[in-house]
Design goal:
It is built from 14 helices and 8 strands. By secondary structure, the protein is of the alpha/beta class.
Length: 368
């Protein structure tokens, strides 16, 4: 792992363990194309899905850079211009800036013969916007961009997750969530939050034998907890007073569980309406809620995606974060450049042979 440290960055004391944005680098010992990989919601560069993708593309002959999601607190603390996540244009700006910094460093270490890009889930959606930006600015001149199980609309997918928290099996769900919060408490007690992401959360519950409905609700709870970490981080860094009093300077010895518990009660809808959108409107006066939400959907760049021969999609038709009309959108927009497997859910078959082979096929000629 490498760390990217920005000058004059004021990192709050409570995030003493998070100084420097972590990212992964694997370099070939010969000239090769470089592929940037963007993690999904709340995931680090070394989350299990990222490790698989990094190894897959490295074995294919690429230089590989794995990027932590802009929604992860380590990225927010160290590399986010606005120190707020969930508005795609801001997140993409941050990724764009970080990628350029990393490229400047790596060009001194290795010979790069071209650039490619891939991301999964929210990272897939963000990769699409990065591709559109690069088509205009020609900074990387990406030869190929791969969207893996991409969200089509950030807000729609977030509301889908939230909807899973309502339904049958609530008593068992509440018990599971209580265990989840307890595990979070242990994370904070041990100051080991640097390894916290959605995959780590779900790993706690592999042996609970939950029903499908309870597992869906647990996944939603995991999303809520990931969002809580994001909300707490932004609030502390901005001194916004949303959860933590604006004049309160948290230290490494302050108990954080009460703040985290408060953050975990906030839905994504509430976060957008009460915290994120007011900030967007402050930075971009005149921006309506409808406009802000539209900026976070692939439909915003549909014309580019339809026309570009460089952008490809690999996903699953039964992906639960996609509405039926969003699956239709992917098929109609990408045509022969989209492969949707009938089953696999959301990234559930990422490391299956046929899925991996399709990712490599859609990534273009081998790096070797």
């Amino acid at each position: 792992m490498r760390r990217l440290e920005t000058q004059d960055r004021n990192v709050p004391e409570v995030f003493w363990y998070a100084k420097g944005m972590g990212y992964a680098v694997q370099l070939q010992d010969k000239p090769a194309p470089l592929i940037f990989l963007v993690a999904g919601t709340g995931a680090r560069h070394d989350a299990s899905k990222m490790l698989f993708l990094e190894r897959l593309f490295y074995a294919q002959g690429y230089h590989v850079v794995g990027l932590t999601s802009p929604t992860h607190f380590n990225f927010l603390v160290n590399a986010s211009k606005h120190v707020i996540a969930g508005y795609v244009p801001f997140d993409v700006d941050d990724l764009w800036r970080v990628m350029r910094w990393i490229r400047e460093d790596l060009e001194q270490e290795c010979e790069i013969t071209g650039y490619r890009l891939a991301g999964y889930s929210l990272g897939g959606l963000q990769s699409a916007f990065l591709a559109e930006r690069d088509s205009r600015e020609r900074v990387f001149d990406f030869e190929n961009v791969l969207l893996i199980n991409p969200a089509v609309d950030l807000y729609s997918s977030a509301l889908t997750f939230e909807s899973w928290l309502a339904g049958p099996g609530q008593e068992a769900l509440e018990q599971a969530v209580q265990i989840l919060v307890k595990e979070f408490t242990e994370f904070y007690k041990n100051n080991d939050v640097g390894n916290l992401d959605g995959e780590a959360i779900l790993a706690f519950f592999q042996d609970l034998n939950l029903t499908d409905a309870q597992m869906r609700a647990l996944i939603a709870a995991s999303f809520r907890m990931t969002a809580a970490s994001m909300i707490f981080t932004s609030d502390v860094c901005m001194h916004a007073g949303y959860i933590v009093p604006a004049d309160k300077a948290l230290t490494s010895t302050d108990p954080l569980l009460p703040y985290f518990d408060a953050a975990s009660q906030i839905t994504f809808k509430e976060y957008f309406e009460e915290f994120l959108y007011p900030y967007i409107r402050y930075v971009l006066p005149g921006m309506s809620q409808e406009q802000a939400l539209a900026e976070c959907s692939l439909r915003r760049i549909e014309e580019f995606l339809q026309a570009s021969p460089k952008v490809f999609v690999v996903g699953n038709a039964d992906d639960p974060i996609l509405q039926p009309e969003e699956v239709d959108f992917l098929r109609s927009t990408f045509g022969e450049r989209v492969a949707l497997f009938p089953h696999g859910g959301h990234c559930g078959n990422l490391n299956y042979v046929r899925f991996a082979e399709k990712m490599l096929e859609f990534s273009g000629p081998e790096g070797n």
